[in-house]
UniProtKB/TrEMBL annotation:
The keyword Transmembrane applies. The chain crosses the membrane at residues 21-45, 291-315, 336-365, 385-405. Belongs to the ABC-4 integral membrane protein family. PANTHER family: ABC TRANSPORTER PERMEASE YTRF (PTHR30572:SF4), MEMBRANE COMPONENT OF TRANSPORTER-RELATED (PTHR30572). Residues 21-217 form the MacB-like periplasmic core domain. It is a multi-pass membrane protein. Residues 294-417 form the ABC3 transporter permease C-terminal domain. The lineage of its organism: Bacteria, Bacillati, Bacillota, Bacilli, Lactobacillales. GO terms for molecular function: transmembrane transporter activity. It comes from the Bacteria. Keywords: Cell membrane, Membrane, Transmembrane, Transmembrane helix. It is found in: Cell membrane. It comes from Vagococcus silagei. This is FtsX-like permease family protein. One of its GO terms (cellular component) is plasma membrane.
Length: 424
């Protein structure tokens, strides 16, 4: 019997007792459905988290700041003891010597100060002015409704506008806002005077849970805003930097990042990557979906006993048939393969139907979630599927089915042909 003949025969034998086979496939379907749905949720949420992470900064960027001991109010283990002689109210700053020290570290490159600025208002096509806040672009690419990303090397002032400002500023839609000029009001901290700065809208940002979907400015504009803010301030209060950004080597490993953080700590600094900022979110998502996946695994374990029972019954019902096949020269290996393929096919059909059911239910969940409890979280598809995860689920379930089917398959392969032919 050829390989293809074994598959056709195994598929035909499955449905000799349709009700028993279908019930076994249904049991596998439940496990496959549960696992597929939870894996889809895991993919969807983590994909959204990755997109939000891009809105915080480049994955190869590390934020460096002076080393500080945090009390309970900042997430430390216990409150810090008050020391009157220490100036605890003043935030630690990075000095010129600190930047020289950081530049000496070969693991870090493109070290730049993180500048802080404040804006008062923004005005667009309409006469109305609106309270406005923006953040500096750290070389990150954010999700856009229209336009392009910020160019930090451009000499002109550029801004990626939060989508919530578009209509308020007098533009019909996101596309119309692209290329338009807005006016930012900025106060001189030392004199109290307000200056106006022009900037071009190059993109409109999608709503985001990170930074509240805040507008972003390029280096040229941030430098101008900082300069205006510091006008009139005493020299010692100008150019204050509380943190810096540094680029890490490409394809750096977690172990290498840990070494860099240790080296920074030895020099009196603390480093934080973009991934550190949302690592807890990832762990929570993976933990919840992991527990749900365990329930699917339990269902598959129960289904595996159903496979064993189904094939044991099949072996018992086909004992004389097995004896006849052996008498005609079929080897025990081929008989083992025949029953093993029956188990594999049960796993295949159960996993495929489970995946199909999870995909259909996932689409319904996405539609309901988008219109209800996920309304306002643009870009979040709660349940997502990809080919690699789907294939992995099918292969794993087929492997479980194969292992479950080996017990009755071995029994069939070891049957004595004479004894089997006499079986009633």
């Amino acid at each position: 019997m050829k390989f293809w003949d074994i598959i056709k025969s195994a598929n035909a034998n499955l449905f000799r007792n349709k009700s028993r086979t279908i019930l076994t496939i249904v049991a596998i379907f439940i496990g496959a459905f549960t696992i597929s749905l939870t894996v889809g949720i895991n993919i969807g949420v983590n994909d959204y988290v990755d997109k939000q992470l891009q809105g915080v900064g480049d994955m190869d960027t590390m934020i460096v700041m002076p080393k500080q001991e945090f009390g309970a109010e900042m997430g430390g283990d216990k409150p810090k003891k008050y020391e009157p002689k220490e100036q605890k109210s003043e935030q630690a700053k990075l000095s010129k010597n600190d930047f020289e020290t950081l530049k000496e570290m070969q693991e870090l490159s493109k070290i730049k100060p993180m500048e802080n600025f404040q804006t008062d208002f923004i005005q667009g096509a309409s006469d109305d002015k609106f309270v406005f806040n923006a953040s500096i672009s750290l070389g990150n690419k954010v999700e856009l409704e229209a336009g392009r990303q910020i160019d930090n090397d451009a000499p002109k002032n550029e801004i990626v506008l939060a989508t919530s400002y578009v209509k308020s500023l007098g533009y019909k839609n996101n596309k119309e806002a692209i290329g338009k000029e807005v006016t930012l009001g900025v106060t001189e901290m030392g004199t109290g005077k307000t200056q106006e700065v022009k900037a071009e809208i190059v993109g409109v940002r999608t709503k985001s849970i990170v930074q509240g979907g805040m507008s972003m400015v390029n280096n040229a504009l941030s430098g101008k805003l900082v300069q205006i803010n510091e006008t009139g301030l005493p020299e010692q209060m100008q150019g204050q930097v509380f943190a810096a950004t540094a680029s890490l080597p490409k394809n750096i490993t977690p172990a290498e990042i840990t070494k860099i953080k240790t080296k920074l700590a030895d020099k009196g600094f603390m480093g934080q990557t973009m991934d550190d900022q949302i690592g807890i979110i990832r762990n929570v998502v993976n933990g919840i979906t992991g527990v749900l996946t365990m329930f699917g695994g339990i269902a598959l374990l129960a289904a595996s006993f159903g496979i064993i029972n189904t094939l044991y019954m099949s072996v018992q019902e086909r004992t004389r048939e097995i004896g006849l096949m052996k008498a005609m020269g079929m080897s025990g290996g081929k008989i083992f393969s025949l029953f093993s393929f029956e188990a594999l096919l049960i796993g295949f059909w159960g996993s495929v139907v489970g995946l199909g059911g999870a995909y259909g239910v996932g689409q319904l969940i996405n539609q309901f979630a988008t219109k209800n409890f996920l309304k306002g979280l643009d870009g979040l598809t709660l349940v997502e599927f990809n080919l690699s995860s789907a294939l992995m689920i099918v292969v794993v379930i087929m492997l479980i089915a194969f292992l479950a089917g080996t017990f009755p398959a071995k029994r069939a392969a070891k049957l004595d042909p004479i004894t089997a032919l006499k079986y009633e």
